[in-house]
Amino acid sequence: MLTASRLVIAAAFFVLLAVWTYPIRDLINPRPVTPLHPVWPYLVAAALFGLAAVTDALDGPLARRWQVVSKFGRVMDPFADKVLVIGAFIMLAGPRFAIEHMRNPELFFQVSGVHPWMVVVILGRELLVTSMRAVAEEQGVDFSAKWFGKAKMVLQATTIPVILVTLGITEVTPGTWGRYLIDLSMWATLVATVLSGIPYLVKGFKALR
Predict the structure, then answer these.
(1) Using one digit for the tens of pLDDT, what is the confidence trace for 61-98?
(2) Angle between helices 40-65 and 71-92 (to 10 degrees)
(3) 11-41 per-position pLDDT tens digit
Protein backbone atom coordinates (compact mmCIF):
# COMPACT_ATOMS: atom_id res chain seq x y z
CA MET A 1 0.00 0.00 0.00
CA LEU A 2 2.83 2.40 0.83
CA THR A 3 4.64 1.62 -2.42
CA ALA A 4 1.49 2.07 -4.49
CA SER A 5 0.67 5.32 -2.69
CA ARG A 6 4.12 6.61 -3.63
CA LEU A 7 3.22 6.26 -7.31
CA VAL A 8 -0.03 8.18 -6.73
CA ILE A 9 1.82 10.95 -4.90
CA ALA A 10 4.42 11.03 -7.67
CA ALA A 11 1.66 11.51 -10.26
CA ALA A 12 0.28 14.50 -8.33
CA PHE A 13 3.82 15.87 -8.00
CA PHE A 14 4.43 15.64 -11.76
CA VAL A 15 1.10 17.25 -12.62
CA LEU A 16 1.85 20.19 -10.34
CA LEU A 17 5.25 20.81 -11.94
CA ALA A 18 3.84 20.30 -15.45
CA VAL A 19 1.13 22.95 -15.17
CA TRP A 20 3.10 25.63 -13.33
CA THR A 21 5.68 27.84 -15.04
CA TYR A 22 8.35 29.63 -13.04
CA PRO A 23 7.11 33.24 -12.64
CA ILE A 24 9.12 36.32 -13.57
CA ARG A 25 8.39 40.00 -13.02
CA ASP A 26 9.92 41.54 -16.10
CA LEU A 27 9.80 39.86 -19.51
CA ILE A 28 12.40 42.27 -20.90
CA ASN A 29 14.89 41.80 -18.09
CA PRO A 30 13.77 38.54 -16.48
CA ARG A 31 13.96 38.48 -12.72
CA PRO A 32 12.52 35.79 -10.43
CA VAL A 33 10.11 36.40 -7.59
CA THR A 34 11.30 37.54 -4.16
CA PRO A 35 10.82 36.00 -0.72
CA LEU A 36 7.95 38.45 -0.24
CA HIS A 37 5.97 36.50 -2.82
CA PRO A 38 6.35 32.75 -2.15
CA VAL A 39 5.69 30.40 -5.03
CA TRP A 40 3.26 28.10 -3.26
CA PRO A 41 3.00 25.45 -6.02
CA TYR A 42 6.72 24.72 -5.59
CA LEU A 43 6.40 24.53 -1.82
CA VAL A 44 3.45 22.16 -2.17
CA ALA A 45 5.43 20.09 -4.68
CA ALA A 46 8.33 19.88 -2.21
CA ALA A 47 5.92 18.70 0.50
CA LEU A 48 4.50 16.03 -1.83
CA PHE A 49 7.99 14.82 -2.65
CA GLY A 50 8.83 14.68 1.05
CA LEU A 51 5.69 12.66 1.72
CA ALA A 52 6.63 10.21 -1.03
CA ALA A 53 10.13 9.92 0.45
CA VAL A 54 8.61 9.05 3.83
CA THR A 55 6.67 6.16 2.28
CA ASP A 56 9.94 4.95 0.75
CA ALA A 57 11.65 5.04 4.14
CA LEU A 58 8.82 3.09 5.79
CA ASP A 59 7.73 0.39 3.35
CA GLY A 60 10.91 -1.70 3.39
CA PRO A 61 11.51 -1.78 7.17
CA LEU A 62 7.81 -2.45 7.87
CA ALA A 63 7.70 -5.28 5.32
CA ARG A 64 10.69 -6.95 6.98
CA ARG A 65 9.40 -6.33 10.50
CA TRP A 66 5.95 -7.73 9.74
CA GLN A 67 7.44 -10.50 7.57
CA VAL A 68 5.40 -9.52 4.53
CA VAL A 69 8.28 -9.16 2.07
CA SER A 70 6.90 -9.97 -1.39
CA LYS A 71 7.95 -10.20 -5.01
CA PHE A 72 5.63 -7.28 -5.69
CA GLY A 73 7.58 -5.17 -3.23
CA ARG A 74 10.96 -6.21 -4.64
CA VAL A 75 9.85 -5.11 -8.10
CA MET A 76 7.64 -2.11 -7.42
CA ASP A 77 9.65 -0.47 -4.63
CA PRO A 78 12.74 0.32 -6.75
CA PHE A 79 10.48 1.09 -9.72
CA ALA A 80 8.53 3.67 -7.70
CA ASP A 81 11.79 5.16 -6.43
CA LYS A 82 13.23 5.58 -9.91
CA VAL A 83 10.00 7.02 -11.32
CA LEU A 84 9.81 9.58 -8.53
CA VAL A 85 13.45 10.70 -8.47
CA ILE A 86 14.37 10.54 -12.15
CA GLY A 87 10.96 11.90 -13.12
CA ALA A 88 11.54 14.85 -10.79
CA PHE A 89 14.91 15.64 -12.38
CA ILE A 90 13.35 15.40 -15.85
CA MET A 91 10.64 17.87 -14.88
CA LEU A 92 13.17 20.27 -13.32
CA ALA A 93 15.22 20.18 -16.54
CA GLY A 94 12.17 21.03 -18.63
CA PRO A 95 11.02 24.29 -20.24
CA ARG A 96 8.83 25.21 -17.25
CA PHE A 97 12.02 26.17 -15.43
CA ALA A 98 13.74 27.94 -18.33
CA ILE A 99 13.93 31.70 -18.78
CA GLU A 100 14.83 33.16 -22.15
CA HIS A 101 15.71 36.82 -22.50
CA MET A 102 13.16 38.51 -24.75
CA ARG A 103 15.76 40.74 -26.48
CA ASN A 104 18.56 38.17 -26.65
CA PRO A 105 17.38 34.54 -26.87
CA GLU A 106 20.97 33.37 -26.42
CA LEU A 107 20.77 34.46 -22.77
CA PHE A 108 19.15 31.24 -21.59
CA PHE A 109 18.81 30.59 -17.85
CA GLN A 110 17.71 27.31 -16.26
CA VAL A 111 16.45 28.50 -12.89
CA SER A 112 16.27 24.97 -11.42
CA GLY A 113 19.98 24.36 -12.01
CA VAL A 114 19.10 21.00 -13.59
CA HIS A 115 20.22 20.75 -17.22
CA PRO A 116 19.14 18.00 -19.64
CA TRP A 117 22.65 16.54 -19.88
CA MET A 118 22.68 16.09 -16.10
CA VAL A 119 19.51 14.03 -16.31
CA VAL A 120 21.12 11.91 -19.06
CA VAL A 121 24.07 11.16 -16.74
CA ILE A 122 21.80 10.24 -13.83
CA LEU A 123 19.51 8.09 -15.98
CA GLY A 124 22.47 6.43 -17.71
CA ARG A 125 23.96 5.46 -14.37
CA GLU A 126 20.70 3.93 -13.19
CA LEU A 127 20.17 1.96 -16.41
CA LEU A 128 23.74 0.66 -16.42
CA VAL A 129 23.66 -0.45 -12.79
CA THR A 130 20.27 -2.11 -13.28
CA SER A 131 21.61 -4.05 -16.27
CA MET A 132 24.73 -5.05 -14.36
CA ARG A 133 22.60 -6.20 -11.43
CA ALA A 134 20.53 -8.47 -13.67
CA VAL A 135 23.66 -10.13 -15.06
CA ALA A 136 25.38 -10.42 -11.67
CA GLU A 137 22.37 -11.97 -9.95
CA GLU A 138 22.17 -14.57 -12.70
CA GLN A 139 25.72 -15.55 -11.73
CA GLY A 140 24.79 -15.70 -8.05
CA VAL A 141 26.67 -12.50 -7.16
CA ASP A 142 25.27 -10.33 -4.35
CA PHE A 143 24.40 -7.04 -5.99
CA SER A 144 22.31 -5.46 -3.24
CA ALA A 145 22.56 -1.74 -2.57
CA LYS A 146 25.49 -0.79 -0.35
CA TRP A 147 25.96 2.31 1.76
CA PHE A 148 27.22 4.41 -1.17
CA GLY A 149 24.12 3.55 -3.20
CA LYS A 150 21.85 4.41 -0.31
CA ALA A 151 23.76 7.64 0.34
CA LYS A 152 23.31 8.59 -3.30
CA MET A 153 19.58 8.01 -3.03
CA VAL A 154 19.35 10.10 0.15
CA LEU A 155 21.28 12.94 -1.48
CA GLN A 156 19.08 12.89 -4.58
CA ALA A 157 15.93 12.81 -2.45
CA THR A 158 17.24 15.79 -0.47
CA THR A 159 18.37 17.88 -3.43
CA ILE A 160 15.01 17.87 -5.20
CA PRO A 161 12.98 19.46 -2.35
CA VAL A 162 15.89 21.82 -1.60
CA ILE A 163 15.71 23.11 -5.18
CA LEU A 164 11.92 23.49 -5.05
CA VAL A 165 11.89 25.23 -1.68
CA THR A 166 14.69 27.58 -2.76
CA LEU A 167 12.78 28.45 -5.94
CA GLY A 168 9.70 29.05 -3.85
CA ILE A 169 11.11 31.42 -1.24
CA THR A 170 14.01 33.41 -2.71
CA GLU A 171 15.60 34.80 -5.84
CA VAL A 172 17.92 32.50 -7.75
CA THR A 173 19.63 34.89 -10.14
CA PRO A 174 23.44 34.57 -10.47
CA GLY A 175 25.25 35.81 -7.39
CA THR A 176 22.43 35.19 -4.91
CA TRP A 177 22.61 32.68 -2.07
CA GLY A 178 19.71 30.82 -3.64
CA ARG A 179 21.70 30.29 -6.84
CA TYR A 180 24.73 29.07 -4.91
CA LEU A 181 22.62 26.64 -2.86
CA ILE A 182 20.89 25.18 -5.92
CA ASP A 183 24.10 24.81 -7.94
CA LEU A 184 26.05 23.31 -5.03
CA SER A 185 23.28 20.82 -4.25
CA MET A 186 22.87 19.73 -7.86
CA TRP A 187 26.57 19.35 -8.60
CA ALA A 188 27.14 17.41 -5.36
CA THR A 189 24.29 15.09 -6.33
CA LEU A 190 25.67 14.60 -9.82
CA VAL A 191 29.18 13.76 -8.56
CA ALA A 192 27.83 11.40 -5.89
CA THR A 193 25.63 9.67 -8.46
CA VAL A 194 28.59 8.99 -10.75
CA LEU A 195 30.96 7.91 -7.98
CA SER A 196 28.37 5.62 -6.39
CA GLY A 197 28.10 3.69 -9.65
CA ILE A 198 31.80 2.79 -9.79
CA PRO A 199 31.70 -0.06 -7.18
CA TYR A 200 28.71 -1.57 -8.97
CA LEU A 201 30.56 -1.45 -12.27
CA VAL A 202 33.60 -3.16 -10.78
CA LYS A 203 31.45 -5.93 -9.30
CA GLY A 204 29.43 -6.20 -12.52
CA PHE A 205 32.48 -6.59 -14.74
CA LYS A 206 33.83 -9.26 -12.42
CA ALA A 207 30.56 -11.15 -12.81
CA LEU A 208 30.79 -10.79 -16.60
CA ARG A 209 34.30 -12.26 -16.61
Answers:
(1) 888 888 888 888 888 888 999 999 999 999 999 989 98
(2) 160
(3) 999 999 999 888 876 655 666 666 667 899 9
Helix residue ranges, H only, the chain = 2-19, 40-65, 71-92, 116-138, 147-169, 177-208
**What is the end-to-end Cα distance of the chain in Å, rounded?**
40
Q: Dump the DSSP string for 102-151.
A: SS-TT-EEETTS--HHHHHHHHHHHHHHHHHHHHHHHTT------HHHHH
Question: Cβ atoms within 10 A of the Cβ of 66, count?
Answer: 8
Do the beta carbons of residue 48 and residue 41 sit within 8 Å? Answer: no
CATH of the domain at 17: 1.20.120
Sorted by sequence, the CB contacts under 8 Å of residue 112 that are 6+ apart come out as: 22, 92, 93, 97, 163, 167, 182
User: Using CA atoms, how far apart are residues 71 and 74, in angstroms rounded to an integer?
Assistant: 5
Contact predicate 130/200, CB 8 Å: no
CA-closest candidate to residue 10, choices 71, 76, 93: 76
* Residues of the domain holding 68: 2-208
Determine phi and psi for 79, rounding to 5 degrees.
-60, -45
Number of domains, the chain: 1
Q: Per residue in 105-119, pLDDT tens?
A: 555 788 999 999 999
